[in-house]
Amino acid sequence: MPSRGVRRRARHLGLWFVSTGTDVNLDLQRVRIHGTPRASADFVRALEVDRAALRELGGTDEDVDVVVVAPEDGARVSQVIRELVRRDIPCEHAIVAVLPDDDPALELEALGAGASEVIPRRALEPVTFARVLARLRARRRAADGYLAQDRERRATQERYAHVFASVDEGFCIFRMLYDAEGKPVDYVFLEANAAFEGQTGLTDPVGKRATQLVPGLEPIWFERYGHVATTGEPTRFEEHAPVMGRWFSVYATRVGPAERREVALFFQDVTERRRAEQALREREEEARAARASAEAERSLLDTVLTAAPVGIIVADAAGRLLRMNPANERLWGIAPFSSSVAEYGEWKGWWAEGSERQGQRLAAEEWAMARALRGETVPGDLVEIEPFGMAGVRRTMINSAAPVRGADGRVLGAVIAQMDITARVAAEAAVRASEERFRTLADNISQLAWMANERGEIFWFNQRWYDYTGTDTESSKGHGWVAVLDPADRARVEATFERALASGEEWEDTFAMRGKDGRQRSFLTRAMPVRDERGCVVRWFGTNTDVEDRRQQEDALREAIQVRDTFLQVAAHELRTPLTALTLQLETLDWLSRRAIAEPARVAAKVEMAVRQTARLASLIEDLLDVSRITSGRLRLELTELDLAEVVREAATRLQDMAQRAGCELQVEADTVVGHWDRSRVEQVVTNLVSNAIKYGRGKPVEVRVARRDHEALLRVRDHGIGIAAGDRERIFDRFERAVSADHYGGLGLGLYITREIVHAHGGRILVESELPDEGTTFGVELPLAPRVAPEERR
Amino acid sequence: MSDDHWHVLVVEDDRDVRDTVIEALEDVGIPAHGAADGAEALEVLRARSDRPPALVLLDLMMPVMNGTQFRERQLADPVLAAIPVVLLSADGSVDAKARALGTAGFLRKPVKLAVLLETAKRFVDGQRG
Q1: What is the ipTM of this complex?
Q2: Which of A99, A487, A598, A621 is the most buried (most CB within 10 A)?
Q3: How far apart are CA A725 and CA A377, in angstroms?
């Protein structure tokens, strides 16, 4: 490193850096040698020679400062030069650097640091040295010619330098470096102002290469600057230097001679601005997106409002109506944009059915909107309205309203939604009325009625059902109703119902159901499926018609027909039997008379029998006529005073023959009992009872008793025959009835019926007692002595 | 009316009819006997099983044992089964019953004397012949 003294003297021609190898006296008169005193003997000798040569050339050596640098210090040359330049060595002094051989990089560095000439050491010969000195001197003389001008320029340069040093903008000059193919690959900084460091973050750039300062610097920079250096076209651009993490705004222009490829840069780190711009762009993008989003929201809201099937009105905090959608117009007609809650009074509305104050007009502040503006959320007011411009028209709607609140909870406005339910209300009313009519009808029909869902679960019964069964909804609903069925029927009924449910066909069945009195009655049950518009069964409607009476009537009718048929059969038999005997007797008489062999006794016997058969026929016919009289109410009594005992005795006499033929003994025990009766009818009663006793008496004695008890005559006829089963004792008095099979016992089966009717006609009664088996039967007749009721009125 | 020399048994509950029929048969020389019901008829036939009658005239509607019951028992008894039976009944469906009971014929009450006698003669002559 040269001392201060050396530097002060090395001011004329230049400063030499000479590498020496030996410790020699370096005070070579006017050639001042600086540096480490290790120049080689060769070099000293060379300098000796050179001094001589210098003199020969007519020069002085005062102008030369030489810095001798040891070969191993070569690497420090540029640093030393830079240090000298940075301090106070005037720039017009030439600096000649003698450098180790074959180190082009070091030469470049020395030049970059400010050396005027670089001489490889191998070329350092006296003559070379002298030649270089001569050249320097010549250059110096040329320079002196422009001294004044130069000074002026320097002043300008100094001013610029001052400006450049003081401006915030970065400034530098560099020389482009090229590779073997002439491609710009780097540059070396020659100059940089104070702001350079601040703008780039790079310190001490002068003398350093760009790639050294910024390893990995992008090739784009070399290309751009190379272009400027080559063409001389200034350029201005803004570029990102990713490796440096900075943005630069650059103005580049070539300076100095073209062949020096020197470029001056004015630049500024615009990273902050770029970032700010980026941030701004991002903010603008965000704002734009927000605007678009808001626009989309607004568009969506518009669409919703337009498409909404409910009338929607939006109001501000004061109640001023801001928006109404088309549905609102359909609901209300052309409605005014009321400007305050008070003006809501112009909207005509009444509380609808189902509201507490049904029928009363809504005051302005009662509208759901007004209440929402007061902070209330209105879930659903039922209101009837008259639309604007449609006097007399009424619509029913549900109004829901809610306040719109700001972030602070303040009510900013309110929204009301109004749904038109007029049609629904009307439909519901129609359904209610229809249901009411249906229930009235269903409760008043004579049938039990019910409805079941599609699975056959009954959910409704009419009142008749409850009245008849005495059950309640809880116990009957679903499948509970089967409890009223006869357990024996249940499985069958459920099966037929299930079949109907499965097939969807009408259900019809007849079965008994238990009433609340515990008695079973027979019901004809029919159920029809009710289908929806798609044909699916949605419910079943069923009825149970009480057919018990009909069933009983049918049974009775069947029985009556059976009885009638039997009777006809019996009647035919009964009529044919005497007719058989009569016919045979008469034909025999005819036969006998033709042959004239008739013996009077035989003829008399046959005629007698014929007469008897005719009487039998007459009696049968009389019985039939009696039945006809009785059923048509034409049984007339002719009351006369008579003795019942006498009637009984006469009848016994008449029946003696029959009794004998039957092998019965008739035992009559009769006290005189006089009363008012119809003689022939009383005879008929006695005859019927006694002949019955003979007929069924199995040849055993028949007892007949007549006695008086208070105001009644008592007649008892007792046999010891086959008896009558207890269950038959009432039946035997019915028409065409008998206790025994018609196959075994003849007779029309009318006797006891006629007998009872006659007894009743006299205001009396007839009783039967029997002890089975074979204990016989006792008939008892009680006849009032004077019938109380006019006989004509009796049937 | 002979007690044991007869060819026709008249089973009839109505005494007038029974007597009339027997009398009519005997007037033409066909000895006949009467029974008041099926049970009595079986009794009589079994008592005389060595000399079966030529014909049984059988009423249907009778007490104790009716005609149908008699016929069933008769057919069940090998000794009596072959005795010809002709129904004599007022029953409206006597023809059907005759077929059902497998009788030799039927007569409907009231029966013509000629038809009755002709029928009886046919069986009596058939037995004799």
Answers
A1: 0.84
A2: A99
A3: 88
